[in-house]
Amino acid sequence: MNRVERHTSATPAQVWSILSNGWLYPSWVVGASRIRDVDDHWPQAGARIHHSVGLWPALLNDETESIESKAGLLELSAAAWPFGRARIRMTIEKDGDGSLIGMEEFVETAPLKWIPPVIQQTAMSPRLNECLRRLAMLAERKAG
């Protein structure tokens, strides 16, 4: 499992407001390019974000499902066709006047599951760090 963390001056509530707005998903998730639909009960467990990945005109339609949603935790299962599914675990903890945001991701299915974990971690860490950088910036903007 690959985990990255980032401190932000935004409060946990401000970070959560970004995570709980499915229409903002491509604003902070590297690779997501557009939203086609968001279930009305997002981010409750079982709700889905219907999104596309890639660059036009080579877009693939995928979806991300909320597995668990509670204060300080959002766990997702994201499709990455044709590569399989990944599990993402977002955590938010109060940290001083701001928050500590954590993001973990691991491959759930083949074919990417066949790649050794150390190579997966090396390849995913920059993407996860960029996701958290974007998420923090959005939450901080909401604060101002």
Oligomer status = single chain
| N-end to C-end Cα span | 34 Å
Q: Decide which structural class fits the backbone.
A: alpha+beta
Give the number of DSSP strands.
7
From the spread of the alpha carbons, the general shape counts as globular
Low-confidence stretches: none
Proportion in β-strands: 35-45%
How many helices does DSSP assign?
3
Compute the CA-based radius of gyration: 15 Å
Biggest sheet character: 7 strands, antiparallel
pLDDT averaged over residues:
89
Labels describing this entry:
seven-stranded antiparallel sheet; START-like_dom_sf; Polyketide cyclase / dehydrase and lipid transport; 144 residues; Polyketide_cyclase/dehydratase; alpha+beta; 7 strands; single chain; 27% helix
Give the topology.
Elements: E1 2-8, H1 12-19, H2 25-28, E2 32-38, E3 48-55, E4 58-70, E5 73-79, E6 85-95, E7 98-107, H3 117-143
Helix pairs in contact: 1-3
InterPro entries: Polyketide_cyclase/dehydratase, START-like_dom_sf
Protein name: Polyketide cyclase / dehydrase and lipid transport
